[in-house]
Amino acid sequence: MIDLYQLDGAWGSSSVSPFCIKVEAYLRMSELPFSIKFGDPRKGPRKKVPWIADEGEIVSDSHHIIAHVCKKYGDKLDAKLTAAQVNRGHALRRMLEEGTYYTQVWLRWGDDAGWQHYLPVLRAMAPPVIGGLILGMFRRQYLKQLWVQGTTRHGKDEMFQIAIDDYRAIASELGDKPYLFGDEPSSVDATVFAFLCALLDFPSTSPLKEFVLGQPNLVAYKARIGDRFFAVAPGVLGAPRLR
Question: Do residues 65 and 152 share a domain?
Fold first, then answer.
């Protein structure tokens, strides 16, 4: 069985990390048995979450985890896609993970109201020796990274508009289909679902969240995936959900 190491959940999400939710969603969609364990990023092979232990083999980074699972257990989600769909999915995934992500990071670490929601969750997961001062230091480091990366060099209105345009593209691609590329999910759906959870389940409001809440197809899509794949315990189809 695969052991998935990830951060704990909050606000109704199975993890506070969209990359952890992405891997969990992929494993659930692929109907592979797995267990969830708390992952301390300091102990991860790349000093971040998620990572998996699969029969003694350790694999880190959500993209590499999915590639490993596909190679070992078969590509149960994307084998049916056309080359054009694979390419579009790749572009959408990279857009979210390398662009939109940083605005959603700012909503937790940069926005004062968001920080007040996030800080108690971080404190609950942190070792007792790590107090508010250390978490405050982490916050300053994240804000510095966002400046270096470029997101916070924009004004807030510009920052939000860029991310809104990202989600507008996803809403357009989804249209009235159940999933991005048809009647059954692909690996890209695992990514989009994860980012929607990270945005919509987080208690703080923002122009980005209000825009997405105004897209009925995205709201229904998130609920559809949650109802179908997260109603049972991980790796145990038909059993009551344990978390």
Answer: no
pLDDT value at position 35? 97
CA distance 5 to 127: 17
pLDDT band at 126 (very low <50, low <70, confident <90, very high): confident
Burial of residue 34 (CB within 10 Å: 0-12, 13-18, 19+) is buried
Instruction: Determine, yes or no, domain membership for 236.
Output: no
The confidence score (pLDDT) of residue 243 equals: 30
55 with 96, same domain: the answer is: no
Rounded CA-CA distance 57/69 in Å is: 11
Q: What is the pLDDT of residues 11-45, one digit of tens each?
A: 999 999 999 999 999 999 999 999 999 999 989 99
- Three-state secondary structure call for residue 33: coil
Per the structure, the complete domain to which residue 64 belongs is given by: 2-73
* pLDDT value at residue 68: 98
Q: Which residues pair with 240 in a beta bridge?
A: 232
Q: Are residues 155 and 222 in the same domain?
A: yes
> Which of 73, 100, 117 is the C-terminal boundary of a domain?
73
Closest Cα to residue 226, out of 79, 24, 6? 24
Q: What is the pTM of this model?
A: 0.94
27 assigned to some structural domain: yes
